[in-house]
Prior knowledge:
Layout: E1 8-14, E2 20-25, E3 29-34, E4 40-46, E5 52-54, E6 75-76, E7 82-83, E8 87-90, E9 93-96, E10 105-106, E11 119-123, E12 126-133, E13 144-153, E14 156-165, E15 169-170, E16 174-175, E17 178-179, E18 192-195, E19 197-203, E20 209-215, E21 227-228, H1 238-243, E22 247-252, E23 259-262, E24 268-274, E25 278-282, E26 305-310, H2 315-318, E27 325-326, E28 332-342
Antiparallel strand pairs: 1-2, 2-3, 3-4, 4-5, 6-16, 7-10, 8-9, 11-12, 12-13, 13-14, 14-28, 15-27, 17-26, 18-21, 18-23, 19-20, 19-22, 22-25, 23-24, 24-28, 25-26
Amino acid sequence: MGKNMITAVNVIEERENGITFFEMKNDELQIRVTNLGCHILSIFAKDRDGKQEDVVLGFEEIEDCKEDGTYMGAIVGRVANRIKGASFELNGKTYKLAVNNGPNHLHGGEIGFDQKIFCYEIIENGILFSCISPDMEEGYPGTLELKVKYLLTGNNLTMEYEAWSDEDTLCNITNHSYFNLSAGKEKIYDHYLKINADKIACVDENCCTTGEFMDVKDTPFDFHDYHKIGERINDDCEQLKLASGYDHSFMVKGDENQLSLYDEKSGRKLTVSTTLPAVQIYTGNFLDEGCNGKQGKPYENRDGVAIEPQFLPDSIHIEKEPKVILRKGEIYKATTKYIFQVDEQ
Ligand code: GLA
């Protein structure tokens, strides 16, 4: 095995309240995470000259996540993104969910998976986190068990999700990391983005998906070729105005490398491969409403871009056969891989 394939995984701090901090490290990447909401705290990745710097946003103090609406680095669920009207029907029954975003339900409710302390086990090349969400937690039926694996191999960070429930329920898990490949030297306007997607899911004024899909051709949402995030973000386009920037699910095509983010100055490139059908791109349009970040001050809007692979948001209200339904006895499985590279200039 090559030298850089050896990954060391260690507990670096264990607090009395159960919050534990971990480091996964090899020659390519150094990643810190915690079992509180499985937050990714930092990812040190090399630039073109081999300099390792932190390319994700994070909290100054992790417990601030309880007061915060940015979900920086967290695992979110049971259902990522918005459920319109915070209610849904399943098997002829109406379920009322926690209302925590205008009239809607966002990212699993008041106390979503981002705030749970997960059990953990150190495994080869990574960490296996698990938690149980009791029946009717935040309004969802069924006791659900979730397993999240973070694996570091070479320059890949892989996240594997598995969940099952003792009753039919909903499940849509994502990681909510915001990336800034310049390591915070600049906002994300000059980051190049490329997405293999022909369509986006349209949103309304509350950022809820409407069930309409827009062809990206000739719009600021066409990222088939690399475009700077800032190039068209202020264009006169209704979908951009409704969300104050990009905050949309791109319906991705293909099985791998559906998305790349590239910073020309540092040479860093992040490629994302996912088994999931949609990737929400959120350009941090309301980041300045959040808690203190790593530099001890709140982040500003557009300091990072969140890349959130998931099922179609509000799938339960939109899809004829909603992928978000997890039937009793079935297993929800998804994998997303984040590949960190540099260009050769
Ligand atoms: C998601 C949503 C955004 C916003 C963030 C959290 O990305 O799509 O609208 O709510 O989460 O701040």
